[in-house]
Amino acid sequence: MSNEASAFVLPHDRYKGKTLGEVLVQDRSYVEWLARQMVPRTEQGKTIQAMARAVLEPAAVPAMVPAAAGATAPTVSGNGGSGNGAAGHGAAAPAPKNGKPANGQAAPVHSTGAPPAADGESNRVRVYSEITRTAILHVEDALEIGKVRLFLIAYQRGQGASGTVAHFLDVEDARVLAADLATGRLPDKFVDYKGSAHGPNGKPISRVFKVEDRGDDQRAPIVMQVANGPGQVIGEGAIKPDGKPDVEIAILLTRWQARRLGHALTAYLLAWQVKAFERSQV
């Protein structure tokens, strides 16, 4: 299996035409991402992941391939999932290290499968992900603080991530939004203002989340957008935007994609509520 895995030729993206053995020397972090963090969405993606896992086993690396020698710093390109029209190995594109893109490339995600948080938070349980040609949406569990975390990544095929944004949606709002999305339609435009008085640079950060339905004449009518930027503290700790956002990313969903997201989030929130009730009865 070791020789077969090392000789496996990658069919897509940055290392198209190269064997896993060659890539292991040039960019070990990429192979590790394929093996441990990639979320395969096609049979080809599953094959690639299996081969990457095999080549990382000590016995799977041929004597001619020094496992760590010559390995470069993480330079993972942004692969999109082919299931929704994005390109690559049928996997979610990794997020930029510390939420900041470096030279158009992105660092691999952590072993939990969750991306490095743009706001310095620890990795969270992934509830659902949606991948399009230009953006990736991760819906994550932040229920310990009564929130659902939305993490958006903008990327281009072969160039990696170009930006990330995050928003924390109150669980009460998340329930209603999930129920609406599960129908594939939104009766009203939804806008949610959040933020923190102490952002990554120590200054207030504003987070604005918008969702709207553009109508049946659009192929992907459901638009979800998150903007992060400078904020201003008002009232009892509330945050409002203070000027133009630093990063603004939108993802366009078909009604089918919106329904999948809505049902997945609804089921997750219901399971969490049941568990919380069971614990309260002990």
Explain this structure.
- The structure is a single chain.
- The chain is of the alpha+beta class and 282 residues long.
- Helix content is 26%, strand content 27%.
- It has six helices and nine strands, in the order H-H-H-H-E-E-E-E-H-E-E-E-E-E-H.
- It has helices at 2-6, 20-26, 28-36, 43-56, 171-182, 255-280; strands at 126-131, 135-142, 147-156, 160-170, 190-196, 205-213, 222-234, 238-241, 247-253.
- Strands 5, 6, 7, 8 and 9 form a five-stranded antiparallel β-sheet that branches. The chain has a four-stranded antiparallel β-sheet with strand order 1-2-3-4.
- A hairpin with a 3-residue loop joins strand 3 (147-156) and strand 4 (160-170).
- It is globular and about 65 Å long.
Question: In a few lines, what is going on in this structure?
Answer:
This protein is of the alpha+beta class and 282 residues long.
> How much β-strand is present in the residues?
25-35%
Low-confidence stretches: 58-122
Number of helices: 6
Instruction: Specify the helix fraction band.
Output: 25-40%
Let me know the number of strands.
Answer: 9
User: Looking at the structure, what is the overall shape?
Assistant: globular
